[in-house]
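Question (not urgent): is this output format expected?
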Amino acid sequence: MKRSRSAFLLTAAILALQPVPESSACTTFCLKRGSEAVFGKNYDWSVGDGMVMVNKRGVAKTAALPPQEKPAQWVSKYGSVTFNQYGREFPNGGMNEAGLAIELMWLDQTRYPDADGRPALGCLEWIQYQLDNFATAGEVARNAGRLRISSDAKVHYLACDKGGSCAAVEFIDGKPVVHAGANLPARALTNHPYEDSLRFRDRNRGDAKALQGIGSLQRFARASERVEDYRGGDPVRYAFDTLNDVAQGSYTRWSIVYELKAGRIHWRTRENRRIRSVALSAFDFSCATPVKLLDIGNGEGNVARLFADYTPEANRRLVTSSVRQTEFLANMPPAAVAEAARHPETTSCRVR
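Got this back:
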């Protein structure tokens, strides 16, 4: 599909997200005990709209970048369920059918590699690419530099798999920096470089006063200490309690808990505190069947039955609403917003 320069510019702006205060920029962690692996995420942002999307395997995709950027192309290997705010194919995070979950957080120190010969994609598309192609955090870590991110968004990522292995992926001084295995002693991430966060936590152990507050370093320390303190019991409840501990009032829009081995996702939103849940096994991920979606604010309990067939109109409404509520995007021309929202129409079913 031929797309205008205005659409590329809008897509780039949507993916950029723009800097926000450190105190309002997300927390992630992973609990691990025995065969249990549970991943928690608070999404802290100025906009709460969103859709839960069911993404299919066997779908051919091209990154939403202009030709001179050499947009990445791939065919999805795994189906996934993602949480999207700025449109389908641009997830904030999610989990695939292999039990891999990925979430992003803001990181001011981020600097992506300069343009080179590698294919490129946006920082949100990077999440979808990982979920489409990989089953483990180790695969994410080994392939962190395969593609180049082209975006003004300064983010880093935490990826965890059903075995409880995790990888923190950052881009510092134009190079990927990956912490995994023994180099990831604390399975948590907020809004400072991982090494800085770990030093702060270790330096302030036992100092309750130093660890209070909603700053990035304090949230990292408390989340990682709660991960260490987990001794069993209901891991989903413990994860939501941890998300409560690091919540930031009105900035915390979504709280999400992924049961990585069980393949279940639970979430609640600022406006709807009732916990909603779905099992990935409830969905048909073959690309011959319709993509499904659900407004993130709807329902309670098991909401699998509430998912409806995807329509371009639903995606356009989501993108339009989120853009209009995002201060630095609010003046974008409606035609450009609509054109960017049509990006999913460039995908096609191609079972491999």
